[in-house]
Structure formats: C-alpha cells, structure tokens
Amino acid sequence: MNLTENPKPLTLALSKGRIFDETLPLLEAAGIQVTENPESSRKLILPTSSPALRLIIVRATDVPTYVQYGAADFGVAGKDVLDEHTVTHPGGLYQPIDLNIAHCRMCVAVREGFDYDEAVRQGSRLRVATKYVHAAREHFGRKGVHVDLIKLYGSMELAPLVGLADAIVDLVSTGNTLRANHLVPVEDITNISARLIVNQAALKTRDSELRPILDAFARASGAVQ
Ligand code: PRT
Ligand code: MG
Asked: Which of 3, 89, 9 shows the shortest CA–CA distance to 45?
C-alpha cells in the first residue's frame, strides 16, 4: 500500500512520562525521530520525522481505548493497564510484542509493623486499596483471602497511612516510594512491562505500513517474533 492510496499517517498512541521516554529509542531504531517533547509542548498530536507516522499523547489508561476503537492504529501500554482494560473490553486488540521497557512489579504492600501473614492466617477480612481491582480480586481469590476492595485512581501509598485500607496493590520499581511512606512489600503478584498493542482492523488493512515499524520494535526490544 502506498501513500497515494492511503494518505492518512499511521497513529501511535503513547502516554507521556516513562512510556514516551522509553519508546523513543525504539522509534529511533525504526529510523523515526520525534523532535517535540510532550512534557513541554501542549500539543496532543505530535509529528515525527516520518510523514507516514504521527503520535497522539493520552493518559496511560486511555491508550488501549484509543487503539481498540481505531482512533490510533497502535499504542504502547503497561501490562497492568492492558489486563484491567481487557476484563471490561475484551477483543479488538492485538498484542504482538513485549517491548521490554517500563519494567516494574505489581505487589501487595502494608504499613511497617502490620502482620500481614498473621492477618491472612486468621482469615481476617482485609481492606485493600488499589487502582488494579481486577488483578487484586484475582490474586486474593486465588489465595482464598477475603478482601474488600477500594478503588483509587492514584497515591495508593497514602491509604494504609490514614486508615483507609490495611493493604494496597500497587506497582513498585525502585521501592523508594514505599520506603518513603513506611510501607513494605509483602507479596509479588506479577512482573510488568510495556506491550505494543495494535488495532485488529489496522493490522489487516495497514499491514504493509505497520510491518517495518513492528519488526524494528521487535528487534530493538529483543523480542522473538
Ligand atoms: O501518573 P498518571 O496517573 O498520569 O498515569 P500512570 O501512573 O498510569 O502513568 P505512568 O506514566 O506513571 O505509568 C505508565 C506505565 O509505566 C504503568 O502503566 C506501568 O506499566 C509502568 N511503570 C513502570 C510504572 C512504574 N514503573 C512505577 N514505578 N508505573 C507507575 N509507577 C509508580 C507506582 O505506581 C508508584 O507510585 O511509581 C511509584 C513507585 O515507584 P518506585 O520507583 O518508587 O518504586
Ligand atoms: Mg503514574
């Protein structure tokens, strides 16, 4: 397919911050440079050095939505975000590559001094605050632990400190945020990294344009195709 047949550039959805920063080298491996930085630019649509590719900057949790509805042809999102999205919006997304970027762990954490193992052993009903209610429900369900889940949209670390919850399910990379708030991880749930997701219709209709970028991303991230 060439540009006269399909003049609309491919659209890649990214969130600013670590996903944008860590996707840039992958784009460069595909021969594509991005000159504007979403941290300083207020533009939500960013051009690239290739007229055939533009970026849109959206909230991390909105990336799968833009791709699923075809407003973006492809996007980069954390496995945490994708797993939560898929529970409520199954289908429509093709997830071909683990990009090996934005690594972290999803953990259960509690206040220092809170005896989590004893609470679990006693069968106490735990209050757990999290952004990841589906992952948390599955985790505690597997363990047979009764929990009341409290949905939060950010700053989960605060919840155990002010008596909103006994535990949190959150992402941890360096562990600095937990330490700064006198929290300790007590259980690992899963390892997280960012994935490339592709709109299923775009994968068929725009395959020849997508393919070189997907291949370059796969090579640069060390993914086996
Ligand atoms: O921040 P905002 O509310 O706008 O959106 P977001 O948190 O969804 O986006 P962003 O950019 O923070 O995260 C995008 C993706 O990066 C997530 O979906 C994860 O897949 C991945 N990622 C990797 C992380 C982290 N590492 C991470 N450490 N996402 C969040 N964190 C947070 C964590 O929630 C905790 O508050 O960083 C804090 C812990 O970090 P450490 O280094 O102190 O342990
Ligand atoms: Mg964040």
From this structure: 9
Q: How far is the CA of 213 from the centre of ligand 2 (A)?
A: 27
Q: Round to whole Å and give the CA distance between 28 and 110.
A: 41
Question: Is 15 touching ligand 1 by the criterion CB < 6 Å?
Answer: yes
- What are the C-alpha distances in Å from 36 to residues 19, 23, 42, 48, 69? 15, 14, 10, 8, 26
106-150 pLDDT, tens digit each = 999 999 999 999 999 999 899 999 999 999 999 999 999 999 999
* 51-84: pLDDT as tens digits: 999 999 999 999 999 999 999 999 999 999 999 9
Which listed ligand is nearest to 156 at the C-alpha? 1
Cα(99)–Cα(126) distance, integer angstroms: 35
Instruction: Name the token pair of 206.
Output: 């725009």
Residue 100 CB less than 6 A away from ligand 1? no
Going from the N-terminus, what domains does the chain have, and what CATH number goes with each? 10-102+193-221 (3.40.190.10), 105-190 (3.40.190.10)
Helix (H, G, I), strand (E, B) or coil at 183: strand
Ligand 1 touching residue 18 (CB < 6 A): yes
Could you tell me where the beta strands, DSSP code E, fall in the chain? Answer: 10-14, 45-47, 53-57, 74-78, 93-98, 104-111, 126-130, 147-151, 167-172, 183-192, 194-199
**Does residue 174 line the site of ligand 1, with CB under 6 A?**
yes
Q: Would you say 119 and 98 are in contact if contact means Cβ atoms under 8 Å apart?
A: no
